[in-house]
Amino acid sequence: MTFTKAVKNTVRFSTYFFAVLVLIQCKSTKTLLEKGKYEQAYTAVVKKMAKGKQTREDKNILYAAFDAIYSESNQVMDKLSKSSSISDLELIYEEYSYLDELASKGKPYFGSDLRTRVDSIGLLKAETKTTIRDQYWTFAKEDLAKYEAKNDKSDAQQSYAYFKKVKKYGGNSAELDSLTEIALQGALVRIGFNAEAPFDIRYNWDIDTKFSRLEGQRGYLLYIYDPSGKMDCFLDVRFENLNIIESEQSTSYQVSERIQTGTTTTTDEEGNVIEVPSYEEVYGTVFNKTIVFDGRWSASVDASSITGDCNYYSNRITATDQRTCEYNEYTGDHRAKPTNVSFTNFPDCDFEDEMVDEMLDDIFRDFRSYYF
Questions:
Q1: By CB distance 3.0 to 4.6 Å, which of 145, 260, 284, 302 could disulfide with 236?
Q2: Cβ contact 144:177 at 8 Å
């Protein structure tokens, strides 16, 4: 086969392959359309057209898919429009947003008639957004006025939520920012709390360091550690006396060792002098000792509501911890002392700091779980 024939055959094959591929793609998008998978068909044909590959059938599929999506969306919006609820109006806005986003992808391939309809979607979306924003603005100011009249935090909380909606739907002004902050300050429930160990003041720094981490805002609850201003409620944590009890257990066993203490001489029957070693049995006692440290630390939480905006109960939190110290002691003749056992007369059994840390962590976790 000549080079020219090979090139011609390759071109024929490539053309044939491309034609087959286009035919498959057309059938694929058409099948999606026929199965009612309009968005998939629309997305697939837009992706194909974006590559510069389009046929009249592609354009027909594009139009048909968008028309079907538009029709389905309109049916949803018709049902929602019969409601006076602003939440349903927000759902209508979501439908317009969905159509607008979808249309923007295929707009470069739309004819003038479809472009006009797409432009109207954008206008309706903008109008709906403005309506929602204005309604929430009215609601927010009404609830803020209620709060200022009755000093009910629930009104301020509702007002704040509405002002946030105004912001979401395009509200942007100094007045909005100012009123939102006023509503927020009225909405917050200020919870003061403090923790200390009046009987073990050496642990107060650790207690302060741990509990002060809980400061901050969670929803409408503002937690303030060691507060000085006016609070809505207060949680007073008082650590009671730290109690660590030691109990000792001990077992023992005797050890002995036969050692050579010297030699004696004797003469045998033949008159030879013989040295004979002399032995002594020495004794000692091994004590296996165990000290058990049982720790117990409690904290009482006195909860008080000052304004009636919070509903906490007083509580008592208790933590326990146990540590064990094992060591060996020896008494008796040092020559009988076993070499395979470790002995000490000054064991390191100071666990108080570790036990305090562990029990403080437990009390802190329980307090956080119960009140936060």
A1: 302
A2: no
